[in-house]
Amino acid sequence: MRQRGSSGRQDAKENVKKVTNWIAERNSLRDWDEYKNDLGKINRTALSVELDFGISVPHQNPAVKRLLQDAEQLWFKKTPKQPAEAAQEASIERSQVKLGKSSTENNKLTVRVAELEAENRQLQKELASFRRMRDMIESGMPGFKI
Fold first, then answer.
1. Which of 76, 99, 143, 145 maximizes the CB count within 10 A of its CB?
2. Distance in angstroms (rounded) separating the CA atoms of residues 68 and 41
3. Which residues, other chains included, contact 48 with Cβ-Cβ below 8 Å and sequence gap of 6+?
4. What's the total number of domains in the chain?
């Protein structure tokens, strides 16, 4: 964490040293798979806790970010995404989100249609009952005189 009296620039340099040493230690122990997350990348939250710096450091410090990307390429054979590939993945992700929202809205509408159909059937039954009563009253059936 940030030391009292230290500047942001000093903290950034110290964090780069910590990450460099951490990577060297992983290389010597060959235990980098313990730090791999579900996406095949270094678990930055676990790294931040272990090295005692903020969770934003691996995302905001360009030198740390680059060190981690290089280590991921080496350890997990991850190649950096080309701009077109990244854009395509982002487009697919946006489409999936939209599809999920559309599916949810569609399900809500389907439920509402079913509710309205049930209500309509009930109202049709009541209407038929009222029509029978009206017919009895109009025909003068005993007990139904006006």
1. 76
2. 9
3. 54, 55, 57, 58
4. 1
